[in-house]
Amino acid sequence: MRIGIDITSAVTQSAGIGRYTRELVRALFALNAPHHYTLFYASARRADRPFGPLPPATRIRRLPFHDKWLARVWHKLQIPIPVELITGPLD
Question: What pTM was estimated for this model as a whole?
Answer without folding.
Answer: 0.79
